[in-house]
Design goal:
Elements lengths: L3 H13 L3 H25 L1
């Protein structure tokens, strides 16, 4: 059985990793924001 220190290290490493769901959601949001900004800049020119 793993020691308490090893368990703690694994838990901290897991919590430090980025959440895949959050990464995908953030990417979609950033893409939408970029599209809006491009439309705004195109309409102002």
């Amino acid at each position: 059985m793993a020691s308490k220190t090893q368990k703690t290290e694994k838990i901290r490493a897991r919590k430090a990793r980025a959440n895949k769901t959050n990464i995908k959601t953030n990417l979609k949001r950033l893409v939408r924001n970029l599209e809006v900004l491009e439309r705004i800049s195109a309409s102002q020119q």
